[in-house]
Amino acid sequence: TEDTLFFAKGAAVKKEYLLSAITQGLAWYIAEKDYEVGIPVIIVNDIKKAMSLIAMEFYGNPQEKLKLLAFTGTKGKTTAAYFAYNILSQGHRPAMLSTMNTTLDGETFFKSALTTPESIDLFDMMNQAVQNDRTHLIMEVSSQAYLVKRVYGLTFDVGVFLNISLDHIGPIEHPSFEDYFYHKRLLMENSRAVIINSDMDHFSVLKEQVEDQDHDFYGSQFDNQIENSKAFSFSATGKLAGDYDIQLIGNFNQENAVAAGLACLRLGASLEDIKKGIAATRVPGRMEVLTQKNGAKVFIDYAHNGDSLKKLINVVETHQTGKIALVLGST
User: Fold this and answer.
1) Structure confidence by residue, pLDDT tens digits, 35-51
2) CB-side neighbour CA atoms (13 Å) of 277
3) Are residue 105 and residue 226 in the same domain, yes or no?
4) What φ, ψ does residue 47 adopt, rounded to 5°?
5) DSSP one-letter string for 96-137
């Protein structure tokens, strides 16, 4: 119709598509070139950037009405997002965009097709969160989201970098590790305050990058450390000093909990909120523990690469004395 805004995006766009759309009422379009189809065109240098900026404006700049928290990392984004959601739910009204579950009203949940939605969907969802009286939005931001400019023009209140390892490198993703790491680091550049794991690979690069920003570092090299780590409890030092109960076993889950806690502390959560939120968090398919009547334990985990699988087995070996069987499935 005449009210439709059409973005001619991607290598697959052909003149025939536009001619077909014109027969259905298309009156104008946005593209990186003129397809010469006899209707007005707005030509832009970068269609993906244009989509993000126009979507932002079309939906009334919802990002200005929410506190924005974003997690990036090769692993742990979903778990950290769940910790943050449960923490902020204690005293605020968060929405969450997550790989496993998305909620825009705190009541209904649905699975997302992408880790980070396309820009038009993203700002539509943000607007729905605002309409639903949400106060915060928690997001997982992939390197792919920056590569294809889904979050272009967006500034986060807090950005969290959990870890980095060799992954997502290939012909349809990142050509090299350097490119992958560069796009991950863009979250730090586009966040007002940052939280970073000091034990991650290449931490020194990030430390130098954020020295002039508000920041918190966690891990063995800085104040915010994990102590007395047990299967279902740990203690923290620094800003989160205290004792914590946790349902997700594994030191990496405790690290994710601390990262989420430090982020939420900057977004209005109290230490009591953080303790309650961490204790309440369970994540579908992330170190879920099912205890059988005969005492056997079943651990369900979405370990999708070799590094994740090694960590999973190490955790189970640490806490189990009996025989361990591994069942692997794949699609």
Assistant:
1) 999 999 999 999 999 99
2) 31
3) yes
4) -65, -35
5) EE-SS-BBSSSS--B--SSSS--HHHHHHHHHHHHHTT--EE
Q: How far apart are CA 132 and CA 126, in angstroms?
A: 10
**Radius of gyration, alpha carbons of the chain:** 22
Instruction: Give the range of the structural domain holding residue 82, as residue numbers without chain letter.
Output: 56-280
Question: Is the same domain home to 31 and 120?
Answer: no
If DSSP codes are grouped into helix, strand and coil, which group holds residue 224? Answer: strand
Per residue in 115-152, pLDDT (tens digit) is 788 899 999 999 999 999 999 999 999 888 888 889 99
Q: Does 307 fall in a domain?
A: no
User: 165, 111, 168, 113: which is closest to 308 by C-alpha?
Assistant: 165
Q: 86, 281 in Cβ contact below 8 A? A: yes
Among candidate residues 175, 125, 111, 117, the one with its CA nearest the CA of residue 142: 117
Residue 289 is which amino acid?
V
Query: 119 and 166 share a domain?
Result: yes
pTM: 0.88
Q: What is the DSSP letter of 331?
A: -
At residue 262, does pLDDT exceed 90? Answer: yes
Nearest to 12 by CA among 39, 47, 40: 47
Residue 215: pLDDT band (50, 70, 90) is very high
User: To the nearest whole number, what is the mean pLDDT of the chain?
Assistant: 90
